[in-house]
Structures are given as C-alpha cells and as structure tokens.
TrEMBL record:
Coiled-coil positions: none
PANTHER family: OS07G0285200 PROTEIN (PTHR32141:SF45), PTHR32141
Domain F-box/LRR-repeat protein 15/At3g58940/PEG3-like LRR: start-end pairs: 1-132
InterPro entries xrefs: F-box_dom-containing, FBD, LRR_FXL15/At3g58940/PEG3-like
Residues in FBD domain copies: 151-195
Name assigned to this protein: FBD domain-containing protein
UniProt superkingdom: Eukaryota
C-alpha cells in the first residue's frame, strides 16, 4: 500500500502500475531519473516529495489515480506535471479548463514573484481544504494589483473550501508578507493559519508581522495567524 522512491540513480524513466498502492513518496536529489509516470493506481490517495525539491524529476505524469487527495511538495524544478488531463508547465497550467476535484491537500514550493501563476494553479484544484507553502527567496515584486480577488472571477477554493493555510520558511521579508497577506485577505472560510519562522518566538517581531499582514482585515474572522518558531537553516 505504500512505496518510497529514494534517490534512484539507474533508471531514466520509472513507470508505476499498482492496484493496491495508496501512498507514493519520492526523493530525487539527482537529475538522473528524468520521468516518473503513475500509469494506473486506482487506490492512490497520497503522492508527495520527501525532500527539498531543488532537484526533482523533469516530468511527472499521474495518469490513472482517480482517488488522489494529497499532492506536493512541487516546484518549478518539475518542468512538466500532469494530473489526469491537467498539465502544468513549471508553475503555469497549460489550460484553466481542466480541474481536479479530488485533491484536498496541496503543497507548493513557491515565491511571491509567482503569485499569479500560483493562483492559476489553485483554479485547477477547486476543492482544496488545506494549502501548504514553502517560501523561497525571490526578487521584489509589486503586489498592488493582486491584493484582492476579482469578485466576478472568484477562485473557488479560496471562496468556499479552504480551511487550513500553512507557510513554512517565512522570513518576514516584505515579499513574504505580501504573498501571505493575499491569502489572509481573500480566503473566506479559513479556520487555521500557521506561519513557521526562525523569529516565531519574538513577540515584537510577531506584532510587526500582524500589522504587515493586515490581520485585522482578514477575510475569515475564525482564523488568526499563529506563529511558531523553526530552526534557522
């Protein structure tokens, strides 16, 4: 029922078929294995990366996994990610017409400079209930035009389904705050917001972050950001 793929160096392509697998985890720190294909896994519910995704498979295709619920941690290092008929190149869906309604939990390795691309990905997973971000360093960007969702073009998971939001590796940079603030101001039914940071125990720093994140203006009154400390890398 469970399979872990751990630094496989001798196969350029892996194809998996299984009638019983429920969970697949992979760790790829070498580009030797270029393609991973889940051809037929009717019971598969969980497909996740087990390691920081600085290097990963170039192409991942999950063709036959109709019960997939948990997906991630993925990054632009995966040049092509295909889930059923949904195809994502880097962090951009090829088409917004295809959506995957079974996925409830998604983890992404992303930056503020990719916000619009991330929002397009979220449109492809309309029933998300839990969303995890591992933030990476990124160039400064202007967030003025993406502070609020367009009410005429809502993102379904932010408006109706998303209950839990987690940010890892939050350093408190302006770009981090702007990225997180977008979701705090737009996710309407959140119950939990967790933010992990090396400064999570610094009361004054946390108070400053609350102001930067405009916590008082949050879309869901049921969720106030909870900061927690993480060790510096």
């Amino acid at each position: 029922e469970s399979l872990q793929l751990w630094d496989i160096l001798t196969a350029r392509r892996l194809h998996i078929r299984s009638l019983t697998l429920r969970s697949i985890g992979f760790r790829a720190r070498s580009a030797c294995t270029q393609e991973l294909v889940i051809e037929d896994a009717p019971c598969l519910e969980r497909f996740v990366s087990l390691y920081s995704p600085d290097i990963s498979f170039e192409t991942i295709r999950v063709i036959g996994a109709p019960k997939l619920k948990i997906l991630g941690l993925f990054s632009p290092c995966v040049s092509t990610l295909q889930i059923a008929t949904l195809v994502i190149k880097g962090v951009s869906p090829v088409s917004l017409a295809n959506s995957i309604c079974t996925v409830k939990v998604l983890a992404l390795y992303s930056s503020g400079s990719q916000l619009n691309a991330v929002l397009n990905i979220l449109r492809c997973f309309p029933r998300l209930e839990k969303l995890y971000f591992t933030l990476k360093k990124h160039p400064k960007m202007d967030m003025k035009n993406v502070r609020l969702c367009d009410p005429l073009d809502p993102i379904e998971c932010l408006a109706i389904h998303l209950k839990k939001l987690v940010f890892e590796n939050y350093k408190g940079r302006d770009q981090d705050a702007d990225f997180a603030k977008f979701f705090i101001l737009n996710a309407k039914v959140l119950k939990e917001i967790k933010i992990s940071s090396p400064k999570g125990n610094d009361i004054q720093w946390v108070d400053d972050q609350h102001r930067l994140l405009q916590v008082e203006d949050r879309a869901s009154r049921d969720a106030e950001p909870e900061f927690r400390s993480e060790a510096c890398p």
